[in-house]
Design brief:
alpha+beta; minor pseudopilin epsh fold; 5-stranded antiparallel β-sheet; 9 strands; cell membrane; methylation; cell inner membrane; Type II secretion system protein H
């Protein structure tokens, strides 16, 4: 008995690939770029919408506060809008700055306009001089209406230009 060993046995070596090919990396980067081009504008539009809503609520809050102040103190009070510096100021309070990217327009009684400043006056009975504050950011716009007879402050998301 002889033990024969087959010397011609072939040995197969399996190669393993650790990592990615350049083509695979480029495809992934192209997909990420395409998704970014779609997502970033949507995020920015959402940010603008949120910013405009926040600034509109701030303006409405200052107006409502001033109306309440006029009624409780039984004296006239004026909210002042500085059109150059884009600020809103209630009597005796700090200035509230409106974001620089937002366009601000105030429609009020002529007697309440002085240079670059406009005001909305509130009376002790709750009535006001009336007016509309319009805030615009890109294609989005909102307004805060102040009813002259009652002094009621309303936020408008959809409105016709005056």
């Amino acid at each position: 008995m002889t033990n024969a060993v087959n010397v011609n046995q072939s040995c197969t070596v399996k190669k393993s690939h650790d990592g990615f090919t350049l083509l695979e990396i480029l495809i992934v980067l192209a997909i990420i770029g395409a998704l970014s081009a779609l997502v970033v504008p949507a995020i920015m539009a959402g940010r603008n919408h949120y910013l405009l809503a926040e600034e509109t609520r701030t303006v409405a809050g200052v107006l409502r506060y001033t109306r309440s102040l006029a009624m409780t103190s039984q004296s006239e009070r004026v909210v002042v809008f500085d059109m150059v510096n884009k600020t809103v100021t209630a009597p005796g309070e700090r200035q509230n700055a409106i974001d620089g990217s937002i366009a601000l327009d105030v429609l009020t009684a002529e007697s309440e306009v002085e240079g670059d400043r406009a005001g909305i006056r509130f009376y002790p009975d709750g009535a006001s001089s009336g007016g509309r504050v319009t805030l615009v950011l890109g294609e989005d716009k909102r307004a805060v209406d102040v009813v002259w007879m009652t002094g009621q402050v309303n936020i408008l998301e959809e409105f016709d230009a005056l």
